[in-house]
Amino acid sequence: MSLKKMIEEKFPQQTNEDWEQSAEKALKGKSLETLSRNTYENIKLKPLYSREDLETGALSQFPGAEDFRRGSYAAGYLSEEWKVAQKISASSSEELSDKLLAAIKTGQTALAFEPEQLKNPEKISLAVGELYERYPFSVDAGRNQHLIMAGLGKVKEREKVSGYVAADPLAIAAADTLNDRSIDELYETLNQTMSDAAINLPSLKTIMVNSAVYHNSGANAVQELALALATGVNHLQYLLDKGKSLEQILSKMVFKFAVGSNFFMEIAKLRAARVLWGNVAEAFGAEGDSKKMVISAETSFFTKSAYDSYVNMLRAGNEAFAAVLGGIQYLHVSPYNDPERAKSPFSERIARNTQLILREEAHLLKVSDPAGGSWYIEHLTNELCSKSWELFLEIEEQGGMADALQTGWIQDQITQVLEKKKKDVHTRKQSIIGTNIYANLDEKPLQAEMETVQNSKSDLKTIPQVRLSESFEGLRNLSERLKGKGIRPEAGLICLGALKDHKARADFISGFLAPGGVGAVNSGSVNNPEDAEAFIQKTNCRHYFICGSNEQYESMAVPLIKQLKEAFPSAEIYLAGLPEEGKKDEYKNAGIGGYIHVKSDCYGTLLNMLNEMEAASNGQ
């Protein structure tokens, strides 16, 4: 073929129908619906998206144009870089000063720290020196806001203090177990702080809408967005009633979002947030740039695990990438050892360098809304906008954010989603690498803190900050407790026939047991009931799993189980795999304890096993 002909050659035009026909052919008769799934937000994800999935059939705007879904600036991060705002832990102003200087030398671009760790927050002026003249603050001040603001009032050039030192009264009341003030008291403090800052620190933002506390309690993206809107409206209404102007309030607001592991959903969440808040601000009478949203993002606490903790680096990297593509102004990437609420120079460096890689090596500072134009992301953005707005209106019908928190309605809504997420993790429908799948029995975990659910001193039902892996980590703790009593948590695998006959199911059971810290003792090839009896006699485990091929199950499983139960009545015998319905009565009559298969409740099964082992050790 000549070059000219190659240039003139065209591929035939393909339609969605052509793709569907090819896909159905590849699925060998299965419906395309089998490739679709529903998210925790009740959004149906399709296998293919196209222009037809957008209401307008085309993108309606450029980056920087209203409704700001594509970012607040036309040139994206070329107009305003996102700030590297890694939170620094320090107990004294001297330590904080040293750490801030060191962080800035290695890429930090904002003054970020954890105020609850600082013993004397009112001495913050000593810690920041003259850094505040060049770098903005990025501080979720919480209940310590008034102390930090008092300290910042002592700096020489207060008009140069920028960024945010902000607080969200509703988030403090709902999630801070050390809080001892009511919502009204917290709001009054915020109002007074805002008034003082308008005079003393005019360039500093002081009002936060913190949706991260809901994310880290298990909320889905729709709930996070709706709760952020409802919180923002609550702030606006309260402060307007106190005589503040709309323009003044909006200019002092910052929104804090936690970014989870569902990559495309999280990108769409941040884009939808700007659209939704623009609508709210416009409804209050705002115009132009005053409808823009300032977003401070952080990687999720909810998704991190104590086991195989280095995987947390990958999780945080994925989440940081999603945050940057979604559009942010500030970003904190959590260190991999965040579950134990401790940091090390190494973990802090890796977290900070994650941002530097995104900035300098992935060149994300050089692009404007790279996610824009993706039919999938644009469709997700629209879906989140629609569903979040509906939930926001429902919250308003409950009396608004404050009332919905006080009645426990919001807590109940989040709990329902959390239970669905837990169920998927327990059945391993959702994988947590190193925790409920590919678990390492010999690994030493992070010394993670698990928050005790308790009521704060306010009048609200506490919204606990949890991690999705905690239930399996509890199993590992129980396993370690048994080891401390001299009991090695183990189960026996009765492997029928040759290696090729039992290996697949034996490997599956070994992987099924490991998340609970239970080791698998392999029998080797078992060819008759006597071999199995000898193995049980030798190992003396409480739980045994028969592993073999379907053909072997058909020929020998039922009589084998019956004989083993007669010889060892206290032993629990399980079958690897799920037999046909017509066979289950035979297995039940033989004494089978249960069936372990890909849809089994891994957590529930292991919890029962470990409890039975512990009861046996106590002579019960």
UniProtKB/TrEMBL annotation:
Cofactor entry: adenosylcob(III)alamin
Protein name: methylmalonyl-CoA mutase
Positions of the UniProt region annotated as Disordered: 1-21
Organism classification: Bacteria, Bacillati, Bacillota, Bacilli, Bacillales
Example of a GO MF term: intramolecular transferase activity
InterPro entries for this protein: Cbl-dep_enz_cat, Cobalamin-bd_sf, MeMalonylCoA_mutase_a/b_cat, MeMalonylCoA_mutase_a/b_site
Record-linked Gene3D superfamilies: Cobalamin-binding domain, Methylmalonyl-CoA mutase
Composition skew (Basic and acidic residues), residue ranges: 1-11
Record's keyword annotation contains Isomerase: yes
Enzyme class: isomerase
Family: Belongs to the methylmalonyl-CoA mutase family.
Enzyme Commission identifier(s): 5.4.99.2
Residues of the Methylmalonyl-CoA mutase alpha/beta chain catalytic domain: 39-112, 156-467
Alphabetical keyword list: Cobalamin, Cobalt, Isomerase
